[in-house]
Specification:
With 162 residues, the chain is α+β, with helices and mostly antiparallel strands. It has a single domain (3-143), classed as NADH Oxidase, CATH 3.40.109.10. The protein has helices spanning 3-9, 24-35, 54-63, 89-106, 119-126, 155-158; strands spanning 46-51, 75-81, 110-114, 133-141. It has a 4-stranded antiparallel β-sheet, with helices on both faces. The longest helix has 18 residues, at 89-106. The termini are far apart. 31% of the residues are buried. It binds flavin mononucleotide. Flavin mononucleotide is lined by residues 11-12, 14, 67, 112-116, 136, 150.
Length: 162
């Protein structure tokens, strides 16, 4: 699959096949995709906690309002930013996260970004120190739905070519 096809096929998936476990190869490919992401001065001011156990996924889903579906995902990538390392940590973290999302498409997996959750609760569940920031989570799993592409703003509205 080429990059264009992956970009076209990507959707936010909010229903997953329960019990589907990622293979080591799938997990490695997703991690490698994030590892290769660009970041300001190559600082990579973030790390990922990858929840694959049912117990932790359940607790994370309870901290994510309206996202009980992530319980059925195979993995939840919690992106933890390090503000002390770089003021650009959120941008850098988002780029690395989207690398995971696009790699997931090529692997036949679905994903969904999540920011609607209690940061305090996630931090306490995962024992994340106060100086670090939970930027977002990304659920990844075998899609149990294939949603249509949602409407996007027209290109003319998004770009001014001068
Ligand atoms: C940073 C970010 C945070 C998001 N947070 C959530 C979320 O908390 N819950 C959710 O269901 N979807 C979340 N989404 C998914 C968006 O709702 C989705 O990308 C948007 O509706 C467009 O749909 P598409 O991804 O299928 O193109 C988030 C997406 C991004 C990029």
């Amino acid at each position: 699959m080429d990059v264009k096809a992956a970009i076209e096929a990507r959707r936010s998936v909010r229903s997953y096949v329960a019990g589907y476990k990622l293979s080591d190869e799938e997990l490695k490919a997703l991690m490698r995709a994030a590892q290769l992401a660009p970041s300001v001065k190559n600082i990579q001011p973030y790390y990922f906690i990858v929840a694959v156990s049912d117990r932790v996924k359940k607790r994370l889903s309870e901290a994510a309002w309206e996202a009980s579906f992530i319980r059925d995902a195979s993995a939840i990538f919690v992106i933890v930013g390090r503000p002390r390392d770089s003021p650009w940590y959120k941008i850098d973290a988002a780029i690395a996260g989207e690398h995971i999302v696009l790699q997931a498409v090529e692997l036949g997996l679905g994903s969904c970004w999540l920011t609607a959750f209690s940061r305090d609760l996630i931090k306490s569940i995962l024992d994340i120190p106060p100086e670090e920031d939970v930027v977002a989570m990304i659920a990844v799993g075998k899609p149990a739905e294939h949603p249509p592409q949602v409407p996007k703003k027209p290109v003319e509205e998004l770009f001014k070519v001068i």
